[in-house]
Automatic annotation (TrEMBL), chain A:
<protein>
    <recommendedName>
        <fullName>Mitochondrial-processing peptidase subunit alpha</fullName>
    </recommendedName>
</protein>
<keyword id="KW-0809">Transit peptide</keyword>
<dbReference type="GO" id="GO:0046872">
    <property type="term" value="F:metal ion binding"/>
</dbReference>
<keyword id="KW-0496">Mitochondrion</keyword>
<dbReference type="InterPro" id="IPR011249">
    <property type="entry name" value="Metalloenz_LuxS/M16"/>
</dbReference>
<dbReference type="InterPro" id="IPR007863">
    <property type="entry name" value="Peptidase_M16_C"/>
</dbReference>
<dbReference type="Pfam" id="PF05193">
    <property type="entry name" value="Peptidase_M16_C"/>
</dbReference>
<keyword id="KW-0999">Mitochondrion inner membrane</keyword>
<comment type="similarity">
    <text>Belongs to the peptidase M16 family.</text>
</comment>
UniProtKB/TrEMBL annotation, chain B:
<dbReference type="GO" id="GO:0032991">
    <property type="term" value="C:protein-containing complex"/>
</dbReference>
<dbReference type="InterPro" id="IPR050361">
    <property type="entry name" value="MPP/UQCRC_Complex"/>
</dbReference>
<keyword id="KW-0496">Mitochondrion</keyword>
<dbReference type="Pfam" id="PF00675">
    <property type="entry name" value="Peptidase_M16"/>
</dbReference>
<dbReference type="GO" id="GO:0046872">
    <property type="term" value="F:metal ion binding"/>
</dbReference>
<feature type="domain" description="Peptidase M16 C-terminal">
    <location>
        <begin position="245"/>
        <end position="429"/>
    </location>
</feature>
<keyword id="KW-0472">Membrane</keyword>
<feature type="domain" description="Peptidase M16 N-terminal">
    <location>
        <begin position="92"/>
        <end position="238"/>
    </location>
</feature>
<keyword id="KW-0249">Electron transport</keyword>
């Protein structure tokens, strides 16, 4: 079975889609939920007879007090208050070996601690693609200290902990949420998981199955978004960096073995490419643990000289990736889903290190959109452009959503749209028109609304601990420091309509990237889409010839 | 789906569900109060955690008094206090201030479909729908625009005993959020044209609920377990009522139930209690607390009937089965033991990793013998009764086996559960409770529900104490009381030919030898 951990905690700012806030909350809970599934391997306790585990109190005397009355004998609590002086502060320290330790405190008894590594599918240029995908599935398997995944989970269970690994195109992230008193164990476990995995043949074989299963699932599931994202990256950055496949290609599954993995790990899992991040934990304590478990440790793959490190910068190429597929019956449940053709059109935006990143984020928010059948009250972006101009006007459109992917050296702003296969041409034109309109006039009201929504989305996402963790980790990994939410909010406030028009105009000069999935008989030529995007009104060129 | 997810569905994923384009409205489904406790419980966190951590000087958390004088138990509560005050009309205001830049504020009302009769069943749900359609002061478009412009989210849900409407917003917009809430709760416009338009939306939503077999299974379960009583009805009501309910019906429902003493204004996040209380006074001070002719609606006891209902349709791919015994009401202390029992049975989905290594023995068996696609336990509670049980989804050939092992697990709980098993379940439960309170919305919901149901918010410390006080003997005792040799209510939908006869299910509720 596949590792449970393929759910995604949201990437706060790096990859916002217009419904980001909702995803954010959901993902946090999913993480917690997945954790519930991982408390397991009870039999092992019995076998080893952990005597210390059998503590329980016999204080059943207060067991019959109704829940509406407080328990007697509980001392009057002294509650924590916000003292207002210490704002959310992120502390960063770099260890001698280059590893960065970042932390942030928060109310509550739970902490989230994890290791982020600057390694992902974009770094696999000189290796078979799919290594990161394998590593994600292999995470939290047996290590030097722990004989199996179950032992790891058993250890975590004692601190009510859950663990999770996610890889993306540019980052690998191992994270554990647990009771704060268990943080020492947690850090030691993390260090072991990251640096001393056994990667046994049996585990790799299991992973091959899991990867196969996931690939199958990816092609079957009714929601085509992951597949489209993969396709648009491949189209936009043809065969380089972030355009490399994030999911292991079928033909590579058997090529990846321990030797390949070790050679990759040796190059990329180095301390200078790592950040140990913690939320809900004291910086000093985290630092102490980091020194204890992550300093001077010899990883299982040895410390040979580094070679083959891929430092290439993303090259935007544009282009089209098409998958013709029968989508007439994709529903897995009893309710049928109408046959749809999915289309994603994207253009290069900018890296999250550039100043234009913020205007792009605002632009993405302003485009917004979602599914035409989505429920939800006011707050889901009912006044974003893709709702007002597209979904509300063209009732046959099934979906129109804007996404913004951003990396350290490039970015991609794209719109996903889906409709009946017979109306693909019309749909393409509607979307290209929206793109060209981005460079046009921006209303003050819609701009203000988008800015406010972006700010509130950011802040709401940062309510939950796993999200803060990821935000801290990613920012420190990319920049060595962390822009606090307040600073980001200030930057958002400064965005003007001129900024939007400027970045949009710049973006529209590029060739588009197009991903299309489903019945594509009505799909216009790539050149026509390109022409439409560079035209004033976004209209596809008209051809009247009968035999084209 | 796991318990956490279920409870949260209502809150967060609500916006993501497909519904109608016309509708643009929350999907406040008749989600039962399944596992509401799990959602409602948490706070304070873990256990001894903070007490062991010293050197907190530089933290953003600080204790009011010097730490040296705080006892161990006191330091456990290292989160802000939940403050509660009451307005003159009886409306309660409760909040927790975490100084976060965002907040959730909402009104929890002690009204739901249980207060309805055959004729107006669905009125509460209908009314909740119309709350998004504008007020006397704000037409629909203005309401939507106002909320969107401050980057806020408006949401709501209705269950059998509760109705909630809440807003998530930046903390600085709290005054506006409270004002909008008050407007939506008190001045909903109820225009005839909107009512007509909403009928079709409701009918469409009913179709969608029909398509969700889990939802159907739970509505069937209520229908059979509480047959002949108001709890047996659905929240959304029959389609006949959706077509015929009039403005007068809705007004009557509102006038009868939207009363100050049955409302809680709850908030969490960057919320100053004094400010909230004064806002509440200004905007909710006028909510009436008197009933016409002093006719206070009194809930009659809803009788539980052990019985079975099944809808066989062999064309459906999977069967949904729910089995439940009568559980206690909200306030009963036995709930703690039952929650531990449920946590011990756990939940399972075939997509979970772990397979036969799962710690719950039922999950292990399910995985090993491929008995079901997923199962989840539930403990749905109402004011005087509840449904304690298990719901599973399986193919048509495994129904009997799955039911057998599930019931055997219940019998094990009643007769032979060990301390070590209970201990594991206790840890899992505590973790679930803590993990749930991440974010202002779950906290706000916990406050709102807690104050409405218990009269106060039960702190996590208190839950921990209650859970710690349990041992295997107590769990066995409580399970004996509610499960052993009791008549279960059974609902089954799908290809359910294999479902055993009721008497056989009943006879597996006891063991002749153990």
């Amino acid at each position: 079975m596949p590792e449970v951990a393929n759910h995604s905690a949201p990437e706060v700012f790096w990859r916002i889609n217009s419904r980001g806030s909702l995803r954010g909350q959901a993902a946090g809970l999913v993480m917690a939920a997945a954790g519930m599934s991982r408390v397991r391997e009870w039999s092992r306790i019995r076998r080893f007879g952990l005597a210390g585990f059998r503590q329980y109190s016999h204080g059943t005397s207060n067991a019959n007090i109704p829940l509406s009355s407080p328990l007697p004998g509980v001392p009057k609590p002294i509650f924590a208050t916000v003292d207002g002086q210490e704002k959310f502060e992120t502390k960063v320290t770099t260890l001698e070996n280059g590893l960065r330790v970042a932390s942030q405190n928060k109310f509550g008894q739970f902490c989230t601690v994890g290791i982020l590594i600057n390694s992902g599918s974009r770094h696999e240029a000189k290796y078979p693609s799919g290594i990161s995908h394998f590593l994600e599935k292999l995470a939290f398997s047996s290590t030097a200290q722990f004989g199996s995944k179950d032992e790891i989970l058993l250890t975590l269970e004692k601190h009510g902990g859950i663990c999770d690994c996610q890889t993306s195109r540019d980052t690998t992230m191992y994270a554990v949420s647990a009771d704060a008193k268990g943080f020492d164990t947690v850090v030691s476990l993390l260090a072991d998981v990251v640096l001393q995995p056994r990667l046994s043949e049996e585990e790799i074989e299991m992973t091959r199955m899991a990867v196969r299963f996931e690939l199958e699932d990816l092609n079957m599931r009714p929601d085509p978004e992951p597949l489209l994202t993969e396709m648009i990256h491949a189209a936009a950055f043809r065969e380089n960096t972030v355009g490399l496949p994030r999911y292991c290609p079928l033909e590579n599954i058997d090529k990846i073995d321990q030797k390949v993995l070790h050679s990759y790990l040796q190059n990329y899992f180095t301390p200078s490419r790592m950040v140990l991040a913690g939320v809900g934990i004291e910086h000093e304590q985290l630092l102490e643990c980091a020194k204890k478990y992550l300093l001077g440790v010899n990883p299982v793959w040895g410390t040979g000289s580094l070679q083959d490190i891929d430092r290439s910068v993303a090259q935007y190429t544009g282009g089209i990736v098409k998958i013709e597929k029968d989508m007439s019956d994709v529903s897995l449940g009893p309710t049928p889903i109408p046959e749809l053709t999915h289309l994603m059109i994207g253009l290069e935006s900018c890296s999250f290190l550039e100043e234009d990143f913020i205007p792009f984020a605002v632009l993405n928010m302003m485009m917004g959109g979602g599914g035409s059948f989505s429920a939800g009250g006011p707050g889901k972006g009912m006044f974003t452009r893709l709702y007002l101009n597209v979904l509300n006007r063209h009732h046959w459109m099934y979906n129109a959503t804007s996404y913004h992917h951003s990396y350290e050296d490039t970015g991609l702003l794209c719109i996903h749209a889906s409709a009946d296969p017979r109306q693909v041409r019309e749909m393409v034109e509607i979307i290209t028109r929206e793109f060209t309109l981005m460079a046009g006039a921006v209303g003050e009201v819609e701009l203000e609304r988008a800015k406010t929504q972006l700010k509130s989305m950011l802040m709401m996402n940062l309510e939950s601990r796993p999200v803060i963790f990821e935000d801290v980790g990613r920012q420190v990994l990319a920049t060595g420091g962390r822009k606090l939410p307040d600073e980001l909010c200030n930057l958002i406030s400064l965005v003007t309509s001129n900024d939007i028009a400027r970045v949009a105009t710049k973006m529209l000069r590029n060739k588009p990237a197009v991903a299309a999935l489903g019945d594509l008989s009505e799909l216009p030529d790539y050149e026509h889409i390109q022409a439409a995007l560079s035209s004033r009104d976004g209209r596809l060129p008209r051809t009247y010839r009968l035999f084209r | 789906m796991s318990r956490n997810e279920r409870a949260s569905n209502e809150l967060t994923l609500a916006n993501d569900n497909p519904a109608s384009r016309v509708q643009i409205q929350t999907r406040s489904r008749p989600k039962q109060q399944r596992e509401k406790m799990a959602a409602s419980v948490c706070r304070a966190g873990g256990s001894a955690g903070r007490a062991l951590l010293r050197a907190r000087a530089s933290s953003l958390l600080s204790l009011k008094k010097s730490q040296s004088t705080a006892s161990y138990a006191q330091t456990l509560q290292n989160i802000p206090e939940t403050q509660v005050s009451t307005l003159e009309n009886g409306l309660r205001v409760a909040s927790e201030d975490s100084a976060h830049p965002t907040c959730t504020v909402g009104v929890w009302i002690g009204a739901g479909s249980r207060y309805e009769n055959e004729k107006n069943n669905g009125a509460g749900y209908f009314l909740e729908h119309l709350a998004f359609k504008g007020t006397k002061k704000r037409p629909q478009a203005a309401l939507e625009q106002e909320i969107e412009s401050i980057g806020a989210h408006l949401n709501s849900y209705t269950s059998r005993e509760q109705t909630a409407i809440y807003i998530k917003a930046l903390s600085k917009d709290l005054p506006k959020a409270v004002e909008i809430l008050a407007d939506v709760v008190q001045n909903v416009s109820l225009e005839d044209s909107q009512i007509e338009k909403e009928r079709s939306v409701l009918l469409r939503e009913m179709e969608e609920i029909d398509a969700n077999l889990e939802e159907v299974a739970f509505d069937y379960l209520h229908a059979t377990a509480y047959q002949g009583t108001p709890l047996g009805r659905t929240v959304i009501g029959p389609s006949q009522n959706a077509k015929t309910l009039t403005r007068a019906d809705l007004l009557e429902y509102m006038n009868l139930h939207y009363k100050a003493p049955r409302m809680v204004l709850a908030a969490a996040g960057g919320v100053d209690h004094k400010e909230l209380a004064s806002l509440a006074q200004r905007h909710f001070g006028g909510v009436s607390f008197q009933y016409e002719g002093d006719a206070v609606p009194v809930l009659t006891h809803c009788r539980f009937t052990g019985s079975a209902i099944q809808y066989r349709n062999d064309d459906l791919p999977l069967a949904h089965i729910a089995v439940a015994v009568e559980g206690p009401g909200w306030n009963n202390s036995d709930n703690v033991a039952l929650l531990v029992a449920n946590s011990l049975i756990g939940n399972y989905d075939c997509t979970y990793g772990g397979g036969k290594n799962l710690s719950s023995s039922l999950a292990r068996t399910s995985a090993e013998f491929n008995l079901c696609q997923s199962y989840q336990t539930f403990n749905i509670r109402y004011s005087d009764t509840g449904l304690f049980g298990i719901h599973f989804v399986t193919d048509k050939h495994s129904i009997e086996d799955m039911l057998h092992v599930a019931q055997a697990e219940w019998m094990h709980l009643c007769t032979g559960v060990t301390d070590s098993e209970v201990n594991r379940a206790k840890i899992a439960l505590k973790t679930a409770l803590v993990a749930q309170l991440d974010g202002t919305t779950p906290v706000c919901e916990d406050i709102g529900r807690g104050v409405l149901n218990y009269g106060h918010r039960i702190s996590l410390k208190e839950w921990n104490d209650k859970i710690d006080a349990l041992d295997a003997k107590k769990v066995r005792e409580v399970c004996m009381k509610y499960i052993y040799d009791k008549c279960p209510a059974v609902s089954a939908v799908g290809p359910v030919e294999q479902l055993p006869d009721y008497n056989r299910i009943r006879s597996a509720m006891f063991w002749l030898r153990f």
